[in-house]
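> example.struct
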């Protein structure tokens, strides 16, 4: 235990330096010392170790609500009050949210579509409404741009592409990935902002070929595409915001891990009743007898 190490070596080295080396607060050490060494049973130790592991896996983004659901899934009988108390005592502090600028270029001469979606973000089945948008990531080699396609039913990322240029080809690759994965029926609502990439003739031609209904946010209104904006916020707050990528390839690999390994398969969504997108879709399959 870190505090015990500080205590055992305090006679030879200053407490301030020992606490800095062990990554603990001096006040926390003295509080522990005043209380006496805490005796932790095996079950309690396993709980704390698991909480630390879950918190680390989320890159310091898992709050007490999500922690409770994760622990209960693994068989721990625990309430939110105790989880909050334990997280505080173990200094498991969620990273603060950060603001990020928009990437929409709406100063173009292409026609724009009406906002057919009108903030109806809860379709009753998959492949009814897809949301899409672009964001950016900084690396020491320069900028990267990420385009995603999200099924609003399960909030699953069904298509994505990343490149050093923000072009129509970028958003087209993301859409083609989604179509190859999902094979959507005719009439799917495709919602985006008014960016030139989505309004371009080539992209609109692709939507018409697959009989998708184009819907676009009102000018300067990010709330019209809130689910996708929330995804970008989660990506940067939970995963990439405090990372300095040396190369573009390093950033691409990290984004791939977030989408494929963490976001779709591990991260719990309050909108889905604290389930992952994949688990939410599996629940639908069980009910309907699909798969």
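> example.seq
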């Amino acid at each position: 235990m870190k505090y015990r190490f500080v205590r055992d070596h305090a006679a030879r080295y200053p407490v301030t330096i020992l606490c800095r080396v062990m990554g603990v607060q001096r006040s926390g050490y003295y509080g522990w010392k005043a209380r006496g060494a805490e005796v932790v049973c095996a079950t309690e130790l396993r709980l704390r170790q698991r909480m630390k592991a879950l918190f680390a896996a989320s890159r310091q983004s898992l709050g007490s609500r999500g922690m409770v659901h994760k622990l209960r899934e693994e068989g721990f009988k625990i309430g939110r009050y105790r989880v909050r108390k334990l997280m505080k005592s173990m200094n498991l502090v969620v990273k603060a949210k950060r603001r990020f600028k928009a990437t929409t270029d709406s100063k173009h001469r292409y026609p724009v579509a009406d906002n057919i979606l009108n903030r109806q973000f809860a379709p009753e089945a998959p492949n009814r409404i897809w949301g899409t948008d672009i964001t950016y990531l900084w690396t020491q080699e320069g900028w990267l741009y990420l385009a995603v396609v999200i099924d609003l039913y399960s909030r699953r990322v069904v298509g994505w592409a990343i490149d050093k240029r923000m072009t129509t080809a970028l958003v087209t690759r993301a859409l083609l990935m989604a179509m190859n994965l999902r094979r959507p029926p005719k009439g799917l609502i495709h919602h985006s902002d008014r960016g030139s990439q989505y309004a371009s003739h080539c992209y609109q031609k692709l939507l018409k070929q697959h009989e998708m209904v184009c819907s676009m946010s009102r000018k300067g209104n990010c709330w019209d595409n809130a689910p996708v904006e929330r995804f970008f916020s989660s990506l940067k707050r939970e995963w990439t915001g405090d990372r300095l990528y040396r190369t573009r390839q390093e950033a691409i690999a990290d984004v791939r891990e977030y989408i494929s390994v963490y976001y779709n398969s591990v991260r719990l969504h309050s909108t889905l009743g604290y389930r992952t997108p994949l688990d939410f879709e599996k629940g639908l399959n069980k009910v309907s007898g699909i798969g």
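> remarks
DSSP finds twelve helices and five strands in the chain.
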